[in-house]
Amino acid sequence: GDARAPIPLRGEIEFRDLTFRYPGTEEREPALRDVSLRIPAGTTTGIVGPVGSGKSTLVSLIPRIYEIEDGALFIDGVDVNDIPLAALRSSIAMVPQDSFLFSMSLGDNIAFGLPQSDPDRIALAARRARLEPDVEDLPDHYATIVGERGVMLSGGQRQRTALARALALDAAILILDDTLSAVDAETEAAIQAQLDDVFEGHTVLIVSSRVSAVRDAD
Ligand code: ADP
Ligand code: MG
User: Fold this and answer.
1) Residue 120 CB partners (closer than 8 Å, separation 6+)
2) Residue 160 in contact with residue 109, Cβ under 8 Å?
3) Protein residue with its CA nearest to atom 24 in ligand 1
4) Residue 174 and residue 190: Cα distance in Å, rounded?
5) Which residue is closest in CA terms to ligand 1's atom 20?
6) pTM score, two decimals?
7) C-alpha dihedral sign at 190, 194, 200, 206
8) 108-148 pLDDT, tens per residue?
9) What secondary structure letter does DSSP report for 9?
10) Separation of 22 CA from ligand 1 center, angstroms?
């Protein structure tokens, strides 16, 4: 195997005239048509639009969840298809719309992408995601088993756990796909107030159906 650590990306993202169809939908309208967009490294971009407009599709192409043609998507000026998948994915922290929690402890769920579990890093990420007050209330705190798909937690707690998992990674590119839709407006505002610091120096894409969530974006 290749033991070299992947080179971290800076996080400039460029879509060039991208048209995308999901596999097996060739006879239908493409999910995305002629999208051109340049996102400088270190900026925060808000993406707002109605359900079905292609927001999740757009962001899922960045970590190459679906295959796309050459010449349509570049990161740091390099075609994504030419970036080794390990290097690409280790530079991206993505909170998908429906994040998956595992039937293990809350702490292990937050630490899921880390090379090793680190209590300080877990606690910091939980604080930033406004999960800490909830952790205090759970029977075994970070050792609480969250149950199959996180059934022990409320929808908002699951989303904040997923956010904490992504924040713990400290990746160059952070993608939040409707991450706080189940979180109440007050908590959302409190999280957002702290994210300014966290976002500093990272390329952030925030997808939301609420314009309020992207108010502070560049
Ligand atoms: P949004 O996130 O803005 O609600 P999506 O990106 O999920 O929109 O969807 C854009 C379009 O792509 C919709 O027409 C949707 O039905 C279609 N779509 C989404 N996911 C898939 C999939 N896995 N296979 C086929 N079509 C899909
Ligand atoms: Mg979506």
Assistant:
1) none
2) no
3) 22
4) 19
5) 57
6) 0.91
7) negative
8) 999 998 988 899 999 999 999 999 999 999 999 999 999 88
9) P
10) 8
